[in-house]
Protein backbone atom coordinates (compact mmCIF):
# COMPACT_ATOMS: atom_id res chain seq x y z
CA UNK A 1 0.00 0.00 0.00
CA UNK A 2 1.38 3.37 -1.05
CA UNK A 3 0.82 6.34 1.23
CA UNK A 4 1.72 9.89 0.29
CA UNK A 5 0.97 13.52 0.82
CA UNK A 6 -0.12 15.62 -2.10
CA UNK A 7 -0.91 19.23 -2.94
CA UNK A 8 -4.01 18.14 -4.84
CA UNK A 9 -7.08 19.82 -3.29
CA UNK A 10 -10.18 17.74 -2.57
CA UNK A 11 -12.10 19.49 -5.32
CA UNK A 12 -9.76 18.05 -7.94
CA UNK A 13 -9.03 14.59 -6.56
CA UNK A 14 -10.42 11.53 -8.31
CA UNK A 15 -10.46 7.91 -7.21
CA UNK A 16 -12.50 5.26 -5.38
CA UNK A 17 -13.25 7.01 -2.12
CA UNK A 18 -12.91 10.59 -0.96
CA UNK A 19 -13.13 11.06 2.81
CA UNK A 20 -13.68 14.46 4.33
CA UNK A 21 -13.38 15.44 7.97
CA UNK A 22 -16.05 17.76 9.35
CA UNK A 23 -16.29 19.56 12.69
CA UNK A 24 -19.58 19.36 14.55
CA UNK A 25 -19.74 23.15 14.79
CA UNK A 26 -18.97 23.68 11.09
CA UNK A 27 -21.25 21.40 9.12
CA UNK A 28 -22.34 23.97 6.53
CA UNK A 29 -21.15 23.22 3.04
CA UNK A 30 -19.52 26.54 2.21
CA UNK A 31 -16.56 27.55 0.05
CA UNK A 32 -14.91 24.69 -1.80
CA UNK A 33 -17.21 22.19 -0.07
CA UNK A 34 -20.20 23.83 -1.77
CA UNK A 35 -18.41 23.45 -5.10
CA UNK A 36 -17.53 19.85 -4.30
CA UNK A 37 -21.13 19.11 -3.31
CA UNK A 38 -22.29 20.48 -6.62
CA UNK A 39 -19.71 18.42 -8.47
CA UNK A 40 -20.99 15.33 -6.62
CA UNK A 41 -24.64 16.06 -7.51
CA UNK A 42 -25.52 17.15 -3.97
CA UNK A 43 -24.34 13.88 -2.41
CA UNK A 44 -22.58 15.61 0.49
CA UNK A 45 -25.71 17.48 1.56
CA UNK A 46 -27.75 14.30 1.20
CA UNK A 47 -25.25 12.29 3.21
CA UNK A 48 -25.41 14.77 6.09
CA UNK A 49 -29.20 14.95 6.02
CA UNK A 50 -30.08 11.30 5.47
CA UNK A 51 -27.69 9.83 8.03
CA UNK A 52 -28.20 12.76 10.43
CA UNK A 53 -24.43 13.20 10.44
CA UNK A 54 -23.53 15.58 13.27
CA UNK A 55 -19.73 15.59 13.04
CA UNK A 56 -19.30 13.88 16.41
CA UNK A 57 -15.77 12.61 16.99
CA UNK A 58 -15.53 8.96 15.98
CA UNK A 59 -18.64 9.00 13.76
CA UNK A 60 -18.47 8.24 10.05
CA UNK A 61 -20.81 7.78 7.07
CA UNK A 62 -20.26 6.69 3.49
CA UNK A 63 -22.31 6.51 0.32
CA UNK A 64 -21.97 5.92 -3.40
CA UNK A 65 -21.91 8.85 -5.77
CA UNK A 66 -24.06 8.64 -8.91
CA UNK A 67 -22.61 7.49 -12.21
CA UNK A 68 -20.51 10.00 -14.12
CA UNK A 69 -18.64 11.18 -11.03
CA UNK A 70 -14.83 10.94 -10.93
CA UNK A 71 -15.26 9.76 -7.32
CA UNK A 72 -17.03 6.44 -6.68
CA UNK A 73 -17.79 6.89 -2.99
CA UNK A 74 -17.68 9.73 -0.57
CA UNK A 75 -17.33 9.48 3.20
CA UNK A 76 -17.50 11.90 6.10
CA UNK A 77 -15.68 11.49 9.39
CA UNK A 78 -16.60 13.52 12.47
CA UNK A 79 -13.90 15.64 14.13
CA UNK A 80 -15.80 16.91 17.18
CA UNK A 81 -15.51 20.57 18.17
CA UNK A 82 -13.18 22.84 16.18
CA UNK A 83 -11.50 24.21 19.31
CA UNK A 84 -10.90 20.71 20.73
CA UNK A 85 -8.90 19.54 17.69
CA UNK A 86 -5.86 17.54 18.76
CA UNK A 87 -3.19 15.78 16.81
CA UNK A 88 -4.80 12.56 17.96
CA UNK A 89 -8.14 13.63 16.44
CA UNK A 90 -6.40 13.52 13.06
CA UNK A 91 -4.76 10.17 13.88
CA UNK A 92 -8.16 8.69 14.74
CA UNK A 93 -10.00 10.30 11.83
CA UNK A 94 -7.44 9.04 9.30
CA UNK A 95 -7.67 5.59 10.91
CA UNK A 96 -11.46 5.65 10.58
CA UNK A 97 -11.16 6.70 6.93
CA UNK A 98 -8.75 3.85 6.18
CA UNK A 99 -10.89 1.27 7.98
CA UNK A 100 -13.97 2.39 6.10
CA UNK A 101 -12.23 2.32 2.72
CA UNK A 102 -10.86 -1.13 3.46
CA UNK A 103 -14.31 -2.40 4.43
CA UNK A 104 -15.77 -0.91 1.26
CA UNK A 105 -13.10 -2.64 -0.85
CA UNK A 106 -11.72 0.62 -2.23
CA UNK A 107 -8.40 0.64 -4.06
CA UNK A 108 -7.68 4.34 -3.80
CA UNK A 109 -8.52 6.69 -0.97
CA UNK A 110 -8.17 10.45 -0.67
CA UNK A 111 -8.29 11.89 2.84
CA UNK A 112 -9.05 15.54 3.43
CA UNK A 113 -8.60 16.68 7.02
CA UNK A 114 -7.81 20.09 8.51
CA UNK A 115 -4.29 20.75 9.78
CA UNK A 116 -3.54 20.72 13.47
CA UNK A 117 -2.02 24.04 14.54
CA UNK A 118 -1.31 24.83 10.88
CA UNK A 119 1.46 22.23 11.01
CA UNK A 120 1.33 20.17 7.81
CA UNK A 121 4.25 17.90 8.74
CA UNK A 122 3.02 16.89 12.20
CA UNK A 123 -0.53 16.56 10.87
CA UNK A 124 0.58 14.30 8.02
CA UNK A 125 2.68 12.22 10.41
CA UNK A 126 -0.27 11.72 12.76
CA UNK A 127 -2.59 10.76 9.88
CA UNK A 128 -0.03 8.34 8.49
CA UNK A 129 0.39 6.74 11.93
CA UNK A 130 -3.36 6.32 12.30
CA UNK A 131 -3.60 4.69 8.88
CA UNK A 132 -0.64 2.34 9.30
CA UNK A 133 -1.75 1.24 12.76
CA UNK A 134 -5.42 0.80 11.89
CA UNK A 135 -4.58 -1.30 8.83
CA UNK A 136 -2.12 -3.55 10.67
CA UNK A 137 -3.70 -6.99 11.06
CA UNK A 138 -1.93 -9.70 12.99
CA UNK A 139 -2.81 -12.97 11.28
CA UNK A 140 0.32 -14.92 12.28
CA UNK A 141 -1.63 -17.51 14.20
CA UNK A 142 -4.54 -17.94 11.78
CA UNK A 143 -4.23 -20.88 9.41
CA UNK A 144 -5.81 -18.76 6.68
CA UNK A 145 -3.25 -16.04 6.99
CA UNK A 146 -3.89 -13.75 4.03
CA UNK A 147 -5.26 -10.31 4.82
CA UNK A 148 -8.07 -10.78 2.34
CA UNK A 149 -9.99 -7.73 3.47
CA UNK A 150 -7.78 -5.03 2.03
CA UNK A 151 -7.74 -3.97 -1.59
CA UNK A 152 -6.21 -0.61 -0.73
CA UNK A 153 -3.42 0.26 -3.13
CA UNK A 154 -2.94 3.98 -2.63
CA UNK A 155 -3.88 6.49 0.05
CA UNK A 156 -3.35 10.19 -0.49
CA UNK A 157 -3.40 12.89 2.16
CA UNK A 158 -4.88 15.84 0.33
CA UNK A 159 -3.68 19.44 0.44
CA UNK A 160 -0.76 18.70 2.78
CA UNK A 161 1.86 18.84 0.04
CA UNK A 162 4.72 16.40 -0.34
CA UNK A 163 5.26 15.09 3.19
CA UNK A 164 7.77 12.36 2.49
CA UNK A 165 9.87 13.00 5.59
CA UNK A 166 6.84 13.07 7.90
CA UNK A 167 5.41 9.92 6.37
CA UNK A 168 8.75 8.13 6.60
CA UNK A 169 8.96 9.13 10.28
CA UNK A 170 5.45 7.74 10.84
CA UNK A 171 6.44 4.47 9.16
CA UNK A 172 9.58 4.16 11.31
CA UNK A 173 7.64 4.71 14.50
CA UNK A 174 4.85 2.35 13.42
CA UNK A 175 7.35 -0.44 12.70
CA UNK A 176 8.37 -0.14 16.35
CA UNK A 177 4.74 -0.09 17.51
CA UNK A 178 3.92 -3.13 15.39
CA UNK A 179 6.90 -5.07 16.73
CA UNK A 180 5.69 -4.36 20.27
CA UNK A 181 2.12 -5.35 19.37
CA UNK A 182 3.24 -8.65 17.89
CA UNK A 183 5.48 -9.48 20.83
CA UNK A 184 2.62 -8.81 23.25
CA UNK A 185 0.02 -10.71 21.22
CA UNK A 186 2.12 -13.82 20.79
CA UNK A 187 1.58 -16.42 23.51
CA UNK A 188 4.14 -17.59 26.04
CA UNK A 189 4.94 -20.75 24.08
CA UNK A 190 6.13 -18.54 21.22
CA UNK A 191 7.65 -15.54 22.98
CA UNK A 192 10.08 -16.77 25.64
CA UNK A 193 13.16 -15.25 27.28
CA UNK A 194 15.18 -16.94 24.54
CA UNK A 195 13.16 -15.48 21.67
CA UNK A 196 13.12 -12.04 23.33
CA UNK A 197 16.92 -12.17 23.33
CA UNK A 198 16.83 -13.25 19.68
CA UNK A 199 14.57 -10.33 18.82
CA UNK A 200 17.04 -7.97 20.51
CA UNK A 201 19.81 -9.64 18.52
CA UNK A 202 17.94 -9.11 15.25
CA UNK A 203 17.46 -5.41 16.05
CA UNK A 204 21.13 -5.06 16.97
CA UNK A 205 22.20 -6.74 13.75
CA UNK A 206 19.83 -4.93 11.41
CA UNK A 207 20.23 -1.42 12.78
CA UNK A 208 23.74 -1.51 14.20
CA UNK A 209 22.96 -1.37 17.91
CA UNK A 210 25.24 -2.88 20.56
CA UNK A 211 23.94 -5.90 22.39
CA UNK A 212 24.93 -7.45 25.68
CA UNK A 213 23.00 -10.47 26.97
CA UNK A 214 23.71 -11.43 30.56
CA UNK A 215 23.15 -15.12 31.20
CA UNK A 216 22.17 -16.50 34.62
CA UNK A 217 25.83 -16.81 35.75
CA UNK A 218 26.56 -13.22 34.68
CA UNK A 219 23.57 -12.02 36.69
CA UNK A 220 24.76 -14.08 39.66
CA UNK A 221 28.13 -12.36 39.50
CA UNK A 222 26.40 -9.00 39.59
CA UNK A 223 24.39 -10.11 42.62
CA UNK A 224 21.00 -9.87 40.91
CA UNK A 225 19.28 -11.97 43.55
CA UNK A 226 15.88 -10.36 43.09
CA UNK A 227 15.69 -11.06 39.34
CA UNK A 228 17.12 -14.56 39.73
CA UNK A 229 14.71 -15.37 42.55
CA UNK A 230 11.82 -14.82 40.14
CA UNK A 231 13.56 -16.82 37.40
CA UNK A 232 14.45 -19.86 39.50
CA UNK A 233 11.36 -22.00 38.88
CA UNK A 234 11.36 -21.69 35.10
CA UNK A 235 12.76 -24.40 32.85
CA UNK A 236 13.81 -21.62 30.49
CA UNK A 237 17.01 -19.65 31.06
CA UNK A 238 16.60 -16.01 32.14
CA UNK A 239 18.04 -13.42 29.77
CA UNK A 240 19.11 -9.95 30.88
CA UNK A 241 18.99 -7.82 27.74
CA UNK A 242 21.03 -4.65 27.35
CA UNK A 243 20.69 -3.09 23.91
CA UNK A 244 22.52 0.17 23.27
CA UNK A 245 21.97 2.70 20.53
CA UNK A 246 24.94 5.05 20.15
CA UNK A 247 24.75 7.92 17.67
CA UNK A 248 27.59 8.80 15.35
CA UNK A 249 29.35 11.80 16.85
CA UNK A 250 28.60 13.12 20.31
CA UNK A 251 25.33 12.28 21.96
CA UNK A 252 23.09 15.19 22.97
CA UNK A 253 21.82 13.16 25.93
CA UNK A 254 22.10 9.71 27.41
CA UNK A 255 19.04 7.90 28.75
CA UNK A 256 17.83 4.42 29.72
CA UNK A 257 14.53 2.66 29.07
CA UNK A 258 13.82 -0.29 31.36
CA UNK A 259 10.98 -2.66 30.48
CA UNK A 260 9.36 -5.35 32.61
CA UNK A 261 9.86 -8.61 30.72
CA UNK A 262 7.80 -11.45 32.21
CA UNK A 263 7.04 -13.67 29.22
CA UNK A 264 4.52 -15.38 31.50
CA UNK A 265 3.36 -14.60 35.02
CA UNK A 266 1.68 -17.56 36.70
CA UNK A 267 1.96 -15.77 40.04
CA UNK A 268 4.45 -18.33 41.32
CA UNK A 269 3.41 -20.23 44.46
CA UNK A 270 0.97 -17.38 45.16
CA UNK A 271 -0.55 -18.69 41.95
CA UNK A 272 -3.14 -16.67 40.09
CA UNK A 273 -6.54 -18.25 40.61
CA UNK A 274 -9.56 -18.78 38.39
CA UNK A 275 -10.94 -15.49 37.07
CA UNK A 276 -7.63 -13.72 37.66
CA UNK A 277 -6.94 -13.44 33.95
CA UNK A 278 -3.93 -15.76 34.20
CA UNK A 279 -4.35 -16.65 30.50
CA UNK A 280 -3.58 -13.01 29.67
CA UNK A 281 -0.26 -13.07 31.48
CA UNK A 282 1.55 -13.53 28.18
CA UNK A 283 1.19 -9.73 28.03
CA UNK A 284 3.38 -9.30 31.10
CA UNK A 285 6.38 -8.55 28.90
CA UNK A 286 4.61 -5.50 27.46
CA UNK A 287 7.21 -3.17 28.97
CA UNK A 288 10.09 -5.07 27.39
CA UNK A 289 8.15 -5.32 24.12
CA UNK A 290 7.72 -1.54 24.03
CA UNK A 291 11.39 -1.07 24.87
CA UNK A 292 12.37 -3.31 21.92
CA UNK A 293 9.81 -1.56 19.70
CA UNK A 294 11.30 1.81 20.64
CA UNK A 295 14.79 0.40 20.01
CA UNK A 296 13.75 -0.63 16.51
CA UNK A 297 12.26 2.81 15.80
CA UNK A 298 15.36 4.51 17.20
CA UNK A 299 17.57 2.23 15.09
CA UNK A 300 15.65 3.37 12.01
CA UNK A 301 15.50 7.07 12.91
CA UNK A 302 19.10 7.33 14.17
CA UNK A 303 18.78 10.38 16.46
CA UNK A 304 21.76 12.07 18.19
CA UNK A 305 20.92 10.50 21.54
CA UNK A 306 22.49 7.55 23.37
CA UNK A 307 19.81 5.15 24.54
CA UNK A 308 20.11 2.02 26.65
CA UNK A 309 17.24 -0.46 26.37
CA UNK A 310 17.21 -2.86 29.28
CA UNK A 311 15.07 -5.78 30.33
CA UNK A 312 15.47 -8.61 32.83
CA UNK A 313 13.47 -11.24 30.96
CA UNK A 314 12.12 -14.43 32.53
CA UNK A 315 8.95 -16.34 33.38
CA UNK A 316 7.34 -16.47 36.82
CA UNK A 317 6.62 -20.18 37.21
CA UNK A 318 6.13 -22.89 39.82
CA UNK A 319 8.22 -26.01 40.39
CA UNK A 320 10.23 -27.63 43.15
CA UNK A 321 12.76 -24.86 42.59
CA UNK A 322 10.24 -22.07 43.07
CA UNK A 323 10.69 -19.26 45.57
CA UNK A 324 8.75 -19.92 48.74
CA UNK A 325 6.52 -17.12 49.89
CA UNK A 326 8.54 -15.58 52.70
CA UNK A 327 11.93 -16.14 51.08
CA UNK A 328 14.44 -13.34 51.49
CA UNK A 329 16.27 -12.15 48.37
CA UNK A 330 19.22 -9.77 48.09
CA UNK A 331 19.14 -7.35 45.15
CA UNK A 332 22.25 -6.10 43.35
CA UNK A 333 22.35 -2.90 45.44
CA UNK A 334 22.60 -5.02 48.61
CA UNK A 335 19.03 -4.40 49.81
CA UNK A 336 17.15 -7.39 51.18
CA UNK A 337 13.56 -8.20 50.26
CA UNK A 338 11.11 -10.49 52.03
CA UNK A 339 8.96 -11.94 49.26
CA UNK A 340 5.60 -12.00 51.02
CA UNK A 341 3.88 -12.50 47.66
CA UNK A 342 5.52 -14.27 44.72
CA UNK A 343 2.97 -12.68 42.37
CA UNK A 344 4.57 -9.26 42.92
CA UNK A 345 7.44 -10.46 40.76
CA UNK A 346 7.73 -7.60 38.25
CA UNK A 347 9.12 -5.20 40.82
CA UNK A 348 11.74 -7.81 41.81
CA UNK A 349 13.00 -8.12 38.24
CA UNK A 350 12.88 -4.33 37.79
CA UNK A 351 14.84 -3.76 40.99
CA UNK A 352 17.98 -5.32 39.53
CA UNK A 353 17.35 -3.80 36.10
CA UNK A 354 17.08 -0.30 37.62
CA UNK A 355 20.30 -0.75 39.63
CA UNK A 356 22.02 -1.86 36.40
CA UNK A 357 20.63 1.15 34.48
CA UNK A 358 21.79 3.65 37.07
CA UNK A 359 25.34 2.29 36.96
CA UNK A 360 25.51 3.32 33.28
CA UNK A 361 25.57 6.97 34.34
CA UNK A 362 22.55 8.01 32.31
CA UNK A 363 20.80 11.37 32.70
CA UNK A 364 17.35 9.84 33.11
CA UNK A 365 15.71 6.44 33.49
CA UNK A 366 12.18 5.59 32.41
CA UNK A 367 10.78 2.21 33.36
CA UNK A 368 7.60 0.77 31.93
CA UNK A 369 5.80 -2.20 33.31
CA UNK A 370 2.53 -4.10 33.38
CA UNK A 371 3.05 -3.84 37.09
CA UNK A 372 -0.24 -3.85 38.97
CA UNK A 373 -3.89 -4.75 38.66
CA UNK A 374 -4.37 -1.87 41.11
CA UNK A 375 -3.35 0.61 38.40
CA UNK A 376 -6.10 -0.76 36.15
CA UNK A 377 -8.59 -0.37 38.99
CA UNK A 378 -7.46 3.24 39.45
CA UNK A 379 -7.22 4.41 35.82
CA UNK A 380 -9.04 1.86 33.66
CA UNK A 381 -7.90 0.27 30.43
CA UNK A 382 -6.96 3.37 28.44
CA UNK A 383 -4.76 5.33 30.82
CA UNK A 384 -1.34 4.47 32.21
CA UNK A 385 0.01 5.66 35.56
CA UNK A 386 3.04 7.95 35.69
CA UNK A 387 5.13 8.29 38.82
CA UNK A 388 8.12 10.56 39.15
CA UNK A 389 9.43 13.06 41.67
CA UNK A 390 11.13 15.00 38.89
CA UNK A 391 8.80 17.68 37.49
CA UNK A 392 10.98 18.27 34.43
CA UNK A 393 10.83 14.60 33.50
CA UNK A 394 7.08 14.53 34.22
CA UNK A 395 6.55 17.46 31.84
CA UNK A 396 8.73 15.91 29.15
CA UNK A 397 6.82 12.64 29.28
CA UNK A 398 3.44 14.35 29.44
CA UNK A 399 4.29 16.35 26.34
CA UNK A 400 5.68 13.34 24.47
CA UNK A 401 2.52 11.40 25.35
CA UNK A 402 0.19 14.20 24.30
CA UNK A 403 1.81 14.32 20.88
CA UNK A 404 1.67 10.53 20.66
CA UNK A 405 -2.00 10.35 21.61
CA UNK A 406 -1.20 8.05 24.54
CA UNK A 407 -2.77 8.82 27.90
CA UNK A 408 -0.92 9.04 31.21
CA UNK A 409 -2.04 10.32 34.56
CA UNK A 410 0.50 11.49 37.11
CA UNK A 411 0.14 9.60 40.36
CA UNK A 412 1.47 10.43 43.83
CA UNK A 413 4.70 9.02 45.21
CA UNK A 414 3.21 8.98 48.71
CA UNK A 415 6.21 8.20 50.91
CA UNK A 416 4.07 7.43 53.96
CA UNK A 417 2.58 4.39 52.23
CA UNK A 418 5.99 2.72 52.25
CA UNK A 419 5.36 2.00 55.93
CA UNK A 420 3.06 -0.76 54.71
CA UNK A 421 6.07 -2.50 53.15
CA UNK A 422 8.09 -2.73 56.36
CA UNK A 423 9.43 -6.20 57.07
CA UNK A 424 10.26 -7.71 60.44
CA UNK A 425 13.16 -9.69 58.99
CA UNK A 426 14.41 -7.88 55.87
CA UNK A 427 14.84 -4.30 54.60
CA UNK A 428 11.38 -4.40 53.02
CA UNK A 429 8.59 -6.70 51.87
CA UNK A 430 7.69 -6.81 48.20
CA UNK A 431 4.00 -6.02 48.76
CA UNK A 432 2.02 -3.83 51.11
CA UNK A 433 -1.73 -3.65 51.82
CA UNK A 434 -4.20 -3.74 48.92
CA UNK A 435 -5.23 -0.06 49.03
CA UNK A 436 -2.85 2.07 46.98
CA UNK A 437 -1.26 -1.03 45.47
CA UNK A 438 0.04 0.77 42.39
CA UNK A 439 1.60 3.45 44.58
CA UNK A 440 3.41 1.03 46.91
CA UNK A 441 4.73 -0.77 43.82
CA UNK A 442 6.24 2.54 42.62
CA UNK A 443 7.65 3.18 46.11
CA UNK A 444 9.25 -0.26 46.07
CA UNK A 445 10.99 0.53 42.75
CA UNK A 446 12.19 3.82 44.19
CA UNK A 447 14.41 1.89 46.63
CA UNK A 448 16.55 0.83 43.68
CA UNK A 449 17.24 4.25 42.14
CA UNK A 450 19.61 6.48 44.10
CA UNK A 451 19.86 9.86 42.41
CA UNK A 452 19.15 9.65 38.68
CA UNK A 453 15.96 11.40 37.52
CA UNK A 454 13.56 8.48 37.12
CA UNK A 455 9.99 7.90 35.99
CA UNK A 456 7.86 4.78 36.35
CA UNK A 457 5.04 4.03 33.91
CA UNK A 458 2.47 1.39 34.90
CA UNK A 459 1.01 0.24 31.58
CA UNK A 460 -1.02 -2.77 32.82
CA UNK A 461 -4.27 -1.34 31.40
CA UNK A 462 -3.44 0.06 27.94
CA UNK A 463 -1.00 -2.67 26.84
CA UNK A 464 -3.88 -4.75 25.48
CA UNK A 465 -7.31 -4.17 23.96
CA UNK A 466 -10.08 -6.71 23.42
CA UNK A 467 -11.86 -4.55 20.86
CA UNK A 468 -11.07 -2.14 18.08
CA UNK A 469 -10.12 1.12 19.73
CA UNK A 470 -9.21 4.14 17.58
CA UNK A 471 -6.24 2.98 15.53
CA UNK A 472 -5.66 -0.09 17.74
CA UNK A 473 -6.98 -3.47 16.71
CA UNK A 474 -7.84 -6.25 19.17
CA UNK A 475 -4.61 -7.57 20.72
CA UNK A 476 -1.44 -5.89 21.88
CA UNK A 477 -1.59 -2.12 21.37
CA UNK A 478 2.12 -1.34 21.17
CA UNK A 479 1.65 1.16 23.99
CA UNK A 480 3.70 3.33 24.80
CA UNK A 481 6.27 3.03 21.99
CA UNK A 482 5.24 6.35 20.44
CA UNK A 483 5.58 8.22 23.74
CA UNK A 484 9.01 6.68 24.33
CA UNK A 485 10.24 7.59 20.85
CA UNK A 486 8.91 11.16 21.17
CA UNK A 487 10.57 11.47 24.55
CA UNK A 488 13.88 10.14 23.25
CA UNK A 489 13.80 12.55 20.31
CA UNK A 490 12.81 15.55 22.49
N1 LIG B 1 1.52 -8.80 36.02
C1 LIG B 1 0.75 -8.54 37.18
C2 LIG B 1 -0.06 -7.24 37.05
C3 LIG B 1 -1.20 -7.28 36.07
C4 LIG B 1 -2.44 -7.69 36.47
C5 LIG B 1 -1.01 -6.87 34.77
C6 LIG B 1 -3.48 -7.72 35.57
C7 LIG B 1 -2.05 -6.90 33.87
C8 LIG B 1 -3.29 -7.31 34.27
C9 LIG B 1 1.67 -8.39 38.39
O1 LIG B 1 2.81 -9.17 38.37
C10 LIG B 1 0.87 -8.84 39.55
O2 LIG B 1 0.54 -9.99 39.63
N2 LIG B 1 0.58 -7.90 40.44
C11 LIG B 1 -0.19 -8.19 41.60
C12 LIG B 1 0.47 -7.50 42.76
C13 LIG B 1 -0.09 -7.93 44.09
C14 LIG B 1 0.31 -9.36 44.37
C15 LIG B 1 0.44 -7.00 45.14
C16 LIG B 1 -1.59 -7.64 41.35
O3 LIG B 1 -1.72 -6.58 40.73
O4 LIG B 1 -2.54 -8.27 41.76
MN1 LIG C 1 2.48 -11.13 39.16
ZN1 LIG D 1 3.53 -9.68 36.54
Provide keyphrases for this structure.
490 residues, alpha/beta, Leucine Aminopeptidase, subunit E, domain 1, Aminopeptidase, 2 domains, nine-stranded mixed beta sheet, six-stranded mixed beta sheet, 14 helices, 20 strands, elongated, binds ligand BES, binds manganese (II) ion, binds zinc ion
Description:
- The protein contains 14 helices and 20 strands.
- It is of the alpha/beta class and 490 residues long.
- The protein folds into 2 domains: 2-139 and 151-161, Leucine Aminopeptidase, subunit E, domain 1; 173-489, Aminopeptidase.
- The strands form 4 sheets. Strands 7, 8, 9, 10, 11, 14, 15, 16 and 18 form a 9-stranded mixed β-sheet that branches.
- The longest helix is centred in the middle third of the chain and has 22 residues, at 164-185.
- It binds ligand BES, manganese (II) ion and zinc ion (ZN).
What is shown here, in short?
The protein has 490 residues and is an alpha/beta fold. It has 14 helices and 20 strands.
Question: What is the topology?
Answer:
Blueprint: E1 2-5, E2 15-22, H1 32-39, H2 43-50, E3 60-64, E4 71-78, H3 87-103, E5 108-112, H4 120-135, E6 154-157, H5 164-185, H6 193-207, E7 210-214, H7 216-221, H8 225-231, E8 239-245, E9 254-259, E10 261-265, H9 286-301, E11 306-316, E12 328-330, E13 336-338, H10 346-359, E14 364-369, H11 373-379, E15 383-388, H12 391-404, E16 407-410, E17 428-429, H13 437-446, E18 454-458, E19 464-465, E20 475-476, H14 481-489
Parallel strand pairs: 1-6, 2-4, 2-5, 5-6, 9-11, 9-14, 10-11, 13-17, 14-18, 15-16
Antiparallel strand pairs: 3-4, 7-8, 8-11, 12-13, 15-18, 19-20
Helix pairs in contact: 3-4, 4-5, 5-9, 6-9, 8-10, 9-14, 10-13, 12-14
Amino acid sequence: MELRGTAIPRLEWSGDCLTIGLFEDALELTGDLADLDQKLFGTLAELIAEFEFKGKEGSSVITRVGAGSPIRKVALVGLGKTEALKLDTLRRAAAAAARLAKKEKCKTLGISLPLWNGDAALSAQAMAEGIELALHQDTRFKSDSEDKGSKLERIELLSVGDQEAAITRARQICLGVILARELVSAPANIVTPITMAETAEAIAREYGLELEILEREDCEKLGMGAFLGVAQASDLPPKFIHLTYRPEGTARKKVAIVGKGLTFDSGGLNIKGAGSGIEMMKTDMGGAAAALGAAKAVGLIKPDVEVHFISAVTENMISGHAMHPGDILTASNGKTIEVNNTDAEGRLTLADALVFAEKLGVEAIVDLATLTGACIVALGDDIAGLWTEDDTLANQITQAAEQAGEKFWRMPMEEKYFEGMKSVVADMKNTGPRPGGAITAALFLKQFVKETPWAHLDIAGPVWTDKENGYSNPGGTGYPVRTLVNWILS
